[in-house]
Design goal:
Layout (H helix, E strand, L loop, with lengths): L6 E6 L5 H8 L5 E7 L3 H11 L3 E3 L1 H6 L5 E4 L3 H13 L3 E4 L7 H14 L3 E3 L7 H11 L6 E9 L19 H18 L2 E9 L4 E3 L9 E3 L5 E8 L4 E7 L6 E9 L2 E5 L9 E5 L6 E3 L10 H12 L7 H20 L3 E2 L22
Parallel strand pairs: 1-2, 1-4, 2-3, 4-5, 5-6, 7-12
Antiparallel strand pairs: 7-13, 8-11, 8-17, 9-10, 11-12, 13-14, 14-15, 15-16
Helix pairs in contact: 4-5, 5-9, 7-9
């Protein structure tokens, strides 16, 4: 096992999101990307060539690569568990895109096997490490809003099929607004409020089919397997409550709405799908908002991998950990279960809430 120097990384899954990951991973001095893998080997070879990665091929070849200590799993949600489990079995640390798995039982199996193998699992979204949320966390920790009491989080749009050239997977099990976009909002709420303990929800589906609106397959009609509008109430172990709306059925586009109300003020957070953005605070009795600029990491997707590599070398805790990913997964599963049961459903998993990052955390992240 390598114990010093940059952590060797294999990227598995070279689709659209791999561009932002590879652009950042190949620029972080703590990392060395050594392999690109994909079911479409030609696509893996193309990405490797574009980002100066020395080797490309299949997933099995990536897992057999001795220089790859950490696997970045960017496959589709349905493949997350299988790829991550294979990587853990090969003795590799794993960073996976969200969700951790399609169900809690699989997520628990993955975490237990990683513990047995002595490797670490991290889970997206790593937007929680960005300047926006981390600045807000520092302000809340300093008492800027008093004691947090409640939260309101909203995502509303007509759905991704109008712009995404291959949107079918976003309307299948493991996706939809709950499992595709929910992790951004639920991870943000978890970072601020800690673990959830119970949820209640309703779900709706405005259309049984959708039509691809762009790209070479424009006009193709496909079926919808999931609820496309979710309204949920969440109770948190420490006392606060939250209201969450996630919708692909809304003509009104509203992104990134997260407000935390405390005993002394309300804080408006930046979009949970972004790494930057100003924070606004409105104190009781104030006539307007006070804007606070965000300070910290704004590099983009891959910050979680960087944090993981530093933890692998230094032995510290993960800030976007598999434990948090598992808790968010259980919260989403409880929301889905509540839609069917029409009752409050428990969330039993727990996690240790990481300390806020220092503003200068990523100062030495890039090579010169």
């Amino acid at each position: 096992m390598v114990e010093a120097g940059p952590v060797g990384v294999a990227v598995v899954g070279c689709g659209t999101i791999s561009d932002e990951y590879l652009r950042n991973l190949t620029s972080f001095g703590d990392l060395r990307v050594v392999f690109c893998a994909d079911l479409d080997v030609e696509r893996a070879e193309k990405q490797a060539a574009a980002y100066g990665v020395p080797r490309a091929g299949t997933t099995d070849q990536a897992l057999a690569c001795p220089d790859a200590e950490l696997v970045v799993n960017l496959t589709i949600p349905a493949a997350h568990f299988a790829v991550s489990m294979a990587a853990v079995a090969a003795g590799k640390h794993v960073w996976t895109e969200k969700p951790l798995a399609l169900d809690v039982a699989s997520g628990q199996r993955l975490m237990a096997e990683a513990d047995r193998m002595g490797v670490r699992v991290g889970c997206a979204p790593d937007t929680v490490l960005g300047a926006g949320l981390q600045t807000a966390r520092r302000l809340i920790a300093e008492g800027a809003i008093g004691v947090p009491q409640a939260a309101l989080a909203l995502l509303q749009n007509p759905g991704p099929e109008s712009w995404h050239p291959d949107p079918e997977f976003l309307f299948q099990d493991g996706a939809g607004p709950l499992f595709d976009m929910g992790p951004y909002y639920l991870s943000t709420l978890a970072a601020v409020l800690g673990p959830a303990c119970s949820v209640a929800a309703v779900g709706r589906r405005a259309h049984e089919t959708r039509t691809i609106g762009s790209g070479p397959r424009a006009g193709t009609v496909f079926g919808v397997d999931v609820f496309t509008h979710i309204s949920a109430l969440l109770e948190y172990t420490r006392g606060p409550a939250a209201t969450l709306v996630l919708s692909f059925d809304s003509p009104l586009r509203r992104y990134g709405f997260v407000e935390i109300t405390g005993t002394e003020a309300t804080i408006a957070l930046p979009d949970p799908n972004r790494f930057d953005g100003d924070i606004r605070i409105r104190a009781t009795g104030a006539g307007d908002w006070t804007v606070v600029p965000a300070v910290g990491a704004t590099d983009g997707r891959g910050l979680g991998v960087l944090d993981m590599a530093r933890a692998v070398r230094g032995g510290g805790p993960l800030r976007a950990s598999g434990e948090i990913g598992l808790h968010v997964l259980e919260t989403m599963e409880a929301i889905a279960r509540s839609i069917s049961s029409q009752a409050f459903e428990p969330v039993r998993s727990d996690f240790t809430q990481p300390e806020p990052l220092e503003p200068s955390w990523d100062a030495a992240a890039r090579t010169i």
